[in-house]
Amino acid sequence: xxxxxxxxxxxxxxxxxxxxxxxxxxxxxxxxxxxxxxxxxxxxxxxxxxxxxxxxxxxxxxxxxxxxxxxxxxxxxxxxxxxxxxxxxxxxxxxxxxxxxxxxxxxxxxxxxxxxxxxxxxxxxxxxxxxxxxxxxxxxxxxxxxxxxxxxxxxxxxxxxxxxxxxxxxxxxxxxxxxxxxxxxxxxxxxxxxxxxxxxxxxxxxxxxxxxxxxxxxxxxxxxxxxxxxxxxxxxxxxxxxxxxxxxxxxxxxxxxxxxxxxxxxxxxxxxxxxxxxxxxxxxxxxxxxxxxxxxxxxxxxxxxxxxxxxxxxxxxxxxxxxxxxxxxxxxxxxxxxxxxxxxxxxxxxxxxxxxxxxxxxxxxxxxxxxxxxxxxxxxxxxxxxxxxxxxxxxxxxxxxxxxxxxxxxxxxxxxxxxxxxxxxxxxxxxxxxxxxxxxxxxxxxxxxxxxxxxxxxxxxxxxxxxxxxxxxxxxxxxxxxxxxxxxxxxxxxxxxxxxxxxxxxxxxxxxxxxxxxxxxxxxxxxxxxxxxxxxxxxxxxxxxxxxxxxxxxxxxxxxxxxxxxxxxxxxxxxxxxxxxxxxxxxxxxxxxxxxxxxxxxxxxxxxxxxxxxxxxxxxxxxxxxxxxxxxxxxxxxxxxxxxxxxxxxxxxxxxxxxxxxxxxxxxxxxx
Amino acid sequence: xxxxxxxxxxxxxxxxxxxxxxxxxxxxxxxxxxxxxxxxxxxxxxxxxxxxxxxxxxxxxxxxxxxxxxxxxxxxxxxxxxxxxxxxxxxxxxxxxxxxxxxxxxxxxxxxxxxxxxxxxxxxxxxxxxxxxxxxxxxxxxxxxxxxxxxxxxxxxxxxxxxxxxxxxxxxxxxxxxxxxxxxxxxxxxxxxxxxxxxxxxxxxxxxxxxxxxxxxxxxxxxxxxxxxxxxxxxxxxxxxxxxxxxxxxxxxxxxxxxxxxxxxxxxxxxxxxxxxxxxxxxxxxxxxxxxxxxxxxxxxxxxxxxxxxxxxxxxxx
Amino acid sequence: xxxxxxxxxxxxxxxxxxxxxxxxxxxxxxxxxxxxxxxxxxxxxxxxxxxxxxxxxxxxxxxxxxxxxxxxxxxxxxxxxxxxxxxxxxxxxxxxxxxxxxxxxxxxxxxxxxxxxxxxxxxxxxxxxxxxxxxxxxxxxxxxxxxxxxxxxxxxxxxxxxxxxxxxxxxxxxxxxxxxxxxxxxxxxxxxxxxxxxxxxxxxxxxxxxxxxxxxxxxxx
Lengths: 672, 318, 221
Hints:
The complex is a heterotrimer of chains A (672), B (318) and C (221).
Chain A: H1 2-23, H2 27-56, E1 63-66, E2 75-78, H3 81-104, H4 117-130, H5 134-152, H6 159-186, H7 195-200, H8 205-223, H9 232-238, H10 241-266, H11 272-294, H12 299-326, H13 330-365, H14 376-379, H15 381-394, H16 401-414, H17 422-454, H18 461-465, H19 471-489, H20 491-506, E3 521-522, E4 530-531, H21 533-554, E5 559-562, H22 580-595, E6 599-603, E7 614-618, H23 622-645, H24 650-671
Antiparallel strand pairs in A: 1-2, 3-4, 6-7
Helix pairs in contact in A: 1-2, 1-4, 2-3, 2-20, 3-4, 3-10, 3-13, 3-19, 4-5, 4-10, 5-6, 5-10, 6-8, 6-9, 8-10, 9-10, 9-12, 10-12, 10-13, 11-12, 11-17, 12-13, 12-16, 12-17, 13-15, 13-16, 13-19, 13-20, 15-17, 15-19, 16-17, 16-19, 19-20
Chain B: H1 2-35, H2 45-55, E1 58-61, H3 66-85, H4 101-121, H5 125-156, H6 161-170, H7 177-193, H8 212-215, H9 221-246, H10 258-285, H11 291-314
Helix pairs in contact in B: 1-3, 1-9, 1-10, 2-9, 3-4, 3-9, 4-5, 5-6, 5-7, 5-11, 6-9, 7-9, 7-11, 9-10
Chain C: H1 6-27, H2 31-56, H3 59-87, H4 99-116, H5 125-147, H6 151-171, H7 177-205, H8 211-217
Helix pairs in contact in C: 1-2, 1-5, 1-6, 2-3, 2-6, 3-7, 4-5, 5-6, 6-7
């Protein structure tokens, strides 16, 4: 019964959207709508959990056929392990975001542009993971894309948001086109639209290769794989904060779902080169994503670039899993896939948390620019704590959840020398180094973000006056904090829950974790490697309190407040603090001078001149210049040629059509 | 009964590293002083310094937040736990499996994260300069460390330090370039991560090239004592790791009897003394680098790690 | 620790040591240190040759080893040091690309060498590892030459290429001694030529940065 119930809930969301549209301006509408979304998402979360547990016990995946859509075809739905897992990921973050919005929704100045689209966006994402045929998948995918586009341009009076919406629209169209190609190839050009039929008749190798290329572009453009990431840091920050959280936290995960569904489920047996390609893409994405993030000083854009990085980490896991699977190492494939899916869950948790905290900061101060914040930890201690936990988690620090998935990915990398291909043997450790580099740089980036926004002294009056946001918003963030900690200290539960998913996709799963002594996490065998977040956390807490107790008891517990020391030269102006840009300067000098052609120009007036000195920093994204500009130029040129054809006379037009017809006939004749 | 014994052995190790850590600093200072023809303070001076610091009043800036007050305890606890999980005198202690070498790197990163945040908390220029440089150095040192970890764990087929040490002690490792490269790389990472000469100078203040000392400039009293002790523990941790992987002989094996354990402690103390003296001797022969030369230094360590992993495939079957 | 495969390990150590020293040459940017590392490079080569001579009981390899030791590890470095002192050449070498990039590229070259020589692994693992290391040393030497501007550093790169070529002898049995002797003579002759060449460009331009030659030819404004 769970699948029909889930679909009823989703249709409830769509109905709510229709109902709320005329009354969106009323003050109660926002609370009622977000309350409904919270309820529906929580129920869907429970359904996902319930199904996954049932499937761990060996239950069959329920199927459903509804007479909607194309006449005679209908739409198929299925709730298997993978769908159930993604249902959990989507609705956990969605319910937190809805709870957050119950309080903060009243600050929205254009509710009629947000409220009707929010539930549709949620419904679209849920439907994508439930769909079991080509039509249903593509239709829900488009619903998700269009609804999120409306949310991106909700505040369309700012020119940068309009630009973001424009770029997003183009990239979303590219993504859907490519998925259309993928499914066209897979379904034998529409012969059988049902996924079950595609599974039964896997495509030939050449078709599969083409379909892989198309699906990597199609889902990569949605998820933000470099070089298809350019829309993401523009569009995600433009939306209202709780929607940004959902776009970064779970819409990119829906794209990952598409990639996993096609490559592991529908494409048939993989080749090792597929894995190597995705691995390389993932490594590049992870490192460049975090380097981009380090160069930002807009809090929400920084978080969006970190999404690019984390998508890269997930892609590394998926690529490794494909490579293992192609060589028949089921255990390795299960380990790598578990790492990737675990990271999907983790990223959805901490990225939503971070975006919600950034939203709280935006609500409280009206600022997103790190160089205009500072000292918020005093006015907003709870938000600061939440952002701190999110930062530690995304920086892969034990004992939080981000570390667990990173640890699993590293364990998978460490068994890769057993692969027979020499290219993989050399490539995988390099990617491992890239993974370590991106984790270390992420830590640096979040020290920067947290330090500039929450620590130090307030740089503007708005930051000075900031106070906490509504209780419900704080509760939403605290729930996510608890989830991050729980997934970090009890990773065995998550890994066990993933067992049916990996069994479904690669035919194997990790050793049963719940039966390990002391709830230790074991990747392959206990002799090889093990990790226990719970014990570490208890140990750290114990020794911290022991040392605090000891020092206070045996030595001194007196504390005096005084002015800052700063080597004897404390400066009263908060402008003398390190800013986000100055914090990143050493790293910029090391990495970005070549990669982003970062240049600093100092305009120092001569002594005696009272003009202010200026430091100009230019950072260029090479992807725009190398990839998008040529494409844009080509499109413009083509458009000019075509538009010149518009001024032809009627006779010439007819001639053009006639010529085309003859050409097609000739092609047909030659073809036969 | 066996459970209590193993818990005791683990507890002893925790206390051992805590007791040894200031001594390591003392030995290094003494050897450096003697090599530069000074008499130098007693090797027990760091203990006296720590006690004195802990007894003094703690002075905190007006605008310091709760993070500034709790950070020293978190930093100290994370490093202490990490140091207690690296094999010193015996292998396979009861909690050694709860953290492999990757986790130990992670715990050190956790400590660094909080120390860096504390450096930014008061909002002074020195805190910022130290923090941003520390994060730059660590962002290069951490991948280098992980490549060395890769080399060792590919060799020993395990990421548990106990298993790696056991493998190095018993198996037919042979002469491998990779081991040499890993050793060299680990020494370089040790120098960089602990802020030793030539990367940073632990003895200097009021100098624009300082990194670690600039970051903790606002701390005083018991907080400073904890941070100093944590820094000493971190150095001890790295030296223990170096000795347990590359000089594993003399470590007591799993389930050894009491006399063997005692011998293990003695040998550990000898090894750690020698390692400190060697580090000190190295430090007096080099000069501090400019900050941006450190990048090349760590790049080289990273390349050593990568090269070690690559050459491992060419050596005799792994 | 020393097991059955000690002979292989020893050869592997020495050849791998040469690759490592090549990386140090790539990394180092002080002239005197470069010359020291070149001597170390040649010393490792001499030891590798001697070890192979011992293993194969081949007397001519002993001669080659002794030659490498005397000429390449002692005489040439001494000569280069004398040149640096005598001409008072600037002591730091300017690199064209960053050290990090050069080293990353070098790592790629090593991986490539190992993979290119993979067919030799079917013959014997010793031959495979030896040839791949020799190729890696040659490639790294060429990389040193193209990434440095200083003429002296380029010569050092060239000499390390020669060491790499000689290392290949260890893998392939019975390269005639004559060839090695000939190469050694050539090198000594080349050294004399270089010395004169250095002296001239140094007198003329007060530098051994080859960049000044470009400027002289008017290729760069």
